[in-house]
Amino acid sequence: MTRKHVLLALALVAIISYSSHAQIEGLPNPSPSQTIAQDLGLGKVSVTYSRPNVKGRDIFGALVPYGKVWRAGANAATTITFSENVLFQNQLVPAGQYALFAIPEKDQWTIILNETVNQWGAYLYDAANDVLRVTVKPLALSTSVESFTIQFANVSTLAADLRLEWNRTQVSVHLTSNDDADILANIDRIIAATDLSNPETLKFANLTYFDAVQYYYNNNKDSEKALQWIGQAENAFPKRASYRLFKSRFLLRKGDKAGARAAAEAGIKIARETNDEEYLRLSQEALNLAR
Hints:
This protein is of the alpha+beta class.
């Protein structure tokens, strides 16, 4: 049989399999599908997959053989979509939709992004269409995960872990946004266009300044620049304890404990005056750190 005939036969098997196993309207799927989404930088990552259950079976190395390409779920191959370019375990991936496959091994997994989506299982998987492969180490779990689960963990503005868990095995791939330079440029542009003297736009201005200050603090950006913005915001929003809190945090980061204490004390005073329990607690914590 020629290679062409082999590929045709495999395609027919996949079509028959898809027809036999695709969900019928009005009937539940034994491996229910799920779509999850996570904001990342200026974009979003979404995953669609099906969730088989352990049902008392041996999974990796048995039901899912070691050394074989696996669809990372059940039914159709798992798909992952990036609305923006991302770093996938430190490798650049262009925005787009990909099939997500895995090759489990006892001590190492290979995670694959493949450009051919809408595949049934891994029957027609072709390594020639791989966008990239990365290797990760599996982690043994102390308790069994009955339903195969893909989730996002350790999430921050610019990073998240894509985590696969089933039975007593967990693997994670680190995702990083490639948007930091664009975010910084956007902050400068939006703040430059914000008028703190216009009462009609103060609500938007407050959100703009507060988001900018948080981004600079959470991502270890220029403290002096952030403190300039905080000074402007303090004048425009004298009853906002939030800016005194971040002033204290930035000053402490610079090593100015006396200034950090004074800012935290000012935040405590405003929080008490405005009955803001959340920022009263946070400002007290900032004061304790600056002592």
